[in-house]
Design goal:
This protein has 28 helices and 2 strands. The chain has about 850 residues and is an all-alpha fold. Helix 12 runs antiparallel to helix 24 and helix 20 packs antiparallel against helix 21.
Length: about 850
């Protein structure tokens, strides 16, 4: 401000009750800076109006008269009673309800924050000036995103008259002219930023389009210009049609909206996570199919084919072993050469004899395809994790999100009755979740209650850890028993009996994965968590502990028992056996998912309705179902080395699981009794998919390629000590044929063979995640400080206005006392 306002109530002028013109000028001149700032921003008309307000303020002699006149009638609240004959009170709007005088109201209406959303003529004038400035800088075409939107309500019209009709029309015409000369993108952004109704924006846009058409019709365009014009219009329409078509191809869009409306964001996060897994498997299959399956299918090796019996669909063995589904089918030579001698002898030879053709080295392609598929998947997961971290750990507070959801979340383009119903359910569920989060109370409990709660939690975790450890030991000894039985009886077993025994291990593991989560839920109900989200996160942790321990035992069984001793159990290709095992585990996991849906949800709902005569339905178990998805995806990642077609099996399984679970949720389940906003679940799911799942699968695959000796009679690495030496062998051949390429061999030695760079890459990924989390945390703190600052500034404004009002009242009272004293003296002297 240019001059400070004196709020000292003990000032001599206050005590004397004299209204000094200098002080009055100080009060009014304190807003000169606001007028100057507003006029500097390009709102000259606003400055003139503010100066007119100030002159009206200086000329007004009486402050105790209420605002009146027809121009103020629309400011009063609806239902205000008429003034009674005895001088009854009339209801006023909230501004007048504070008891502020007309001077204070005019000062308030002159504040910059109150003059943004003023009358329509002023808005049009303001944006006319903006478009004029933008048109003058049209050659550089600057971005207008920095233009501040004007959308706040105003009390500007107190004591003011709006623009005349002729002036408004002229301003509208100038605005239309300026908009017509702007590029289309800037024109659209400018129209969107105007604080006008949709109908008025549409009217202005139609005027601009009509003027453009008139100009184009008056101009005589050449044939080339007309052809160019029509080509541009056709291309734009084609592009919009293509975008609409791509949007229509988005899978399960309507179903996901329906689930979100009825069951909330928790259940929705499960189906979104399933959809994400489908995309990961599609990418994995595209990579392996393009670089491994398709080249080998075009140039198949000579094999004795066996007949299809149908049992292969259950066991994965039989005729499937002689197809591109498994590792052993792939050749160890450079395509397109066919080798008739596949027995592993020197004649099949391999990398050396055919590398000079340099057509398509299958061992090298197999090695680098699997490695690059895991590397790219890791990059995508890290990016998705960092992105969802910033989106889900919201910086906004629940009350601000609630305000946005209440006033600005409805899509007025939705006109179909079914879509309107889905959207209303969705918004209602989100409002319930936000209100539940706002009304959640954190009660302080006594020491005894906290101690008892910790004891219950300790007992619950002890039960869960003990049961998981027991299941791990059971799977370990059961797999060892099956391995020893195959060593002793593999020659005497019937093939059907052998495959039936091989199905026993996947069946036992699937039974444990089905029953033990029920025990975890029972223990969780014993703990009585107040927040449903905390209960879900604890259940996710316990189920993750179970799934990862099971997978750890199975990986030890395959890589620690079967791979070194595969000949003792009658195998010729242990990689095919591991691929078949993973296929059986995926199939059994799908079968037990169906059984859980049938018995755990459908039959329980029928039993509750028919026998118990209750309308209660089971609640969808998010934790167990999500960990089932992570368990299945880990199996798919583990098996892509041994079965490049396994991602197709996982895709089919996920599609079937989606529709089965969707139907079961809509028919057999009910929404959680306590609504909660699961804003962080998607981030947690992606994190669990990255760190325990993909990281564990990558470690197992890397260990297999780096340390375990491949089978000597099948697969692309049959003549090598390890799969990893395929790249080194190829580099040696390149260096021998062309000594100038020795740099590549050294680069391969230092960067690929050295595990140090693998750890460096992993460290870089972790550092990126850490810095992104720190940036989000810093943004959260900054926005919290800004919100507190805005709140404090509002309190400061209120304090200053109250002080102005009190000073003005004291001056007014002092002036009245002075007038009364002067009147008494005059009367005394006169009489």
């Amino acid at each position: 401000m240019s001059r400070n306002v004196n709020f000292d109530l003990s000032h001599p002028l206050m005590e004397a009750g004299l209204e000094s013109p200098a002080d009055e000028e100080g009060v009014h001149d304190s807003f000169q800076q606001l007028i100057a700032e507003h006029s500097d921003n390009g709102a000259a008309s606003s400055a003139l109006e503010l100066q007119q307000l100030q002159s009206d303020l200086d000329e007004e002699s009486r402050d105790n008269e209420p605002l009146s006149g027809p121009e103020h009638e629309h400011r009063r609240r609806q239902g205000a009673s008429d003034l009674e004959c005895d001088g009854g009170e009339r209801e006023m709007d909230p501004i007048q309800g504070e008891g502020w005088s007309s001077d204070t109201l005019k000062i308030l209406s002159s504040m910059p924050s109150r003059t943004i959303g003023r009358n329509r003529g002023a808005i049009i004038s303001q944006y006319c000036n903006k478009t004029l400035k933008l048109r003058r800088r049209r050659q550089t075409r600057p971005s207008i995103r920095d233009f501040s939107p004007s959308s706040r309500p105003s009390i500007r019209s107190y004591g003011m008259e709006g623009d005349t009709t002729d002036a408004e029309v002229s301003k509208r015409e100038r605005l239309v002219n300026n908009l017509q000369n702007l590029p289309v993108s800037d024109r659209v952004r400018m129209l969107r930023g105007m604080p006008l109704s949709v109908a008025e924006k549409k009217e202005i846009r139609n005027l601009v389009m009509q003027k453009e058409k008139r100009i184009l019709s008056n101009k005589k365009l050449s044939c080339c210009s007309q052809l160019k014009y029509y080509i541009i219009i056709a291309a734009r329409k084609s592009w919009y049609s293509w975008l609409s078509f791509l949007h229509s191809l988005q899978p399960w869009h309507t179903l996901l909206k329906r689930v979100s409306g009825r069951f909330g964001t928790g259940v929705l996060s499960y189906f979104l996570f399933l959809k994400t897994l489908v995309f990961f498997n599609v990418f994995l299959f595209l990579v392996t199919g393009a670089f491994l399956v398709l080249p080998q299918a075009v140039h198949p090796p000579y094999r004795d084919m066996t007949s299809f019996s149908g049992l292969e669909l259950l066991t994965g063995a039989g005729s499937f072993s002689h197809t591109v589904m498994y590792y052993g089918y792939y050749a160890n030579y450079t395509l397109p050469r066919r080798s008739r001698d596949e027995g592993g002898g020197q004649n099949a030879s391999t990398l050396t004899s055919d590398s000079q053709q340099f057509s398509y080295n299958m061992p090298l392609a197999y090695f680098f395809t699997i490695g690059m598929a895991f590397f790219i998947t890791c990059i995508i997961l890290v990016y998705s994790m960092s992105k969802t971290f910033g989106q889900s750990f919201r910086i906004n507070k629940s009350n601000s999100i609630l305000t946005m959801k209440t006033f600005s979340c409805w899509d007025f383009k939705v006109i179909k009755k079914k879509s309107v119903q889905i959207m209303s359910e969705n918004i209602g569920t989100q409002l319930k979740e936000l209100l539940a989060e706002l009304t959640q109370k954190h009660t302080k409990s006594t020491f005894c209650k906290r101690f008892c709660r910790l004891m219950v939690h300790g007992v619950a975790w002890t039960i869960c850890i003990a049961s998981t450890t027991g299941c791990m030991a059971g799977i370990y000894y059961f797999s060892e028993f099956i391995h020893k039985d195959l060593q002793q009886n593999h020659r005497n077993l019937d093939p059907l009996m052998k495959e039936a025994k091989l199905l026993s291990l996947p069946t036992v593991v699937s039974v444990i994965n089905l029953l033990l989560p029920a025990l975890f839920n029972l223990v969780g109900w014993m703990e009585t968590y107040e927040s449903p989200s905390v209960f879900a996160y604890v259940a996710i942790g316990r189920n993750l502990m179970l799934k990862m321990s099971m997978l750890g035992v199975l990986c030890f069984h395959w890589l620690g028992r079967v791979a070194p001793e595969y000949k003792s159990i009658g195998l010729t290709c242990w990689e095919d056996f591991v691929g078949q095992e993973l296929y059986r585990f995926l199939l059994m996991d799908f079968i037990f998912t169906l059984l859980d849906t049938l018995f755990g949800e459908l039959l329980w709902r029928l039993f509750s309705e028919k026998v118990l005569k209750r309308k209660r339905k089971p609640v969808f178990d998010i934790a167990r179902n999500v960990l089932d998805l992570i368990y299945g995806q880990t199996l798919a990642w583990l098996g892509v080395l041994f079965s490049p077609v396994l991602p197709v099996v996982q895709i089919l399984k996920l599609f079937l699981v989606f529709y089965i679970k969707m139907s079961s949720v809509m028919l057999n389940c009910q929404a959680p009794r306590k609504p909660y906003r699961a804003s962080q679940m998607t981030t947690i799911f992606i994190t669990l998919l990255c760190i325990p799942s993909l990281l564990g699968a990558s470690v197992c695959v890397t260990y297999t390629m780096w340390s375990i000796t491949p089978s000597t009679s099948c697969g692309p690495f049959r003549t090598l000590d390890t799969m990893f030496k395929a790249g080194k062998h190829w580099m040696e051949i390149l260096e021998k044929d062309n000594p100038s390429l020795s740099v590549l061999s050294k680069a391969h030695t230092y960067f690929v063979e050295n595990p140090f760079f693998l750890f460096v890459g992993a460290g870089i990924f972790l550092i990126v995640i850490y810095f992104h989390s720190q940036v989000v945390d810093g943004q959260r703190k900054i926005i919290s400080l800004l919100q507190d600052q805005i709140q404090n500034e509002g309190e400061d404004k209120k304090f200053l206005i109250n002080r102005l009002q009190s000073v003005h009242k004291q001056k007014q009272d002092a002036g009245k006392r002075l007038k009364s004293q002067v009147g008494h003296l005059y009367n005394h002297q006169h009489f």
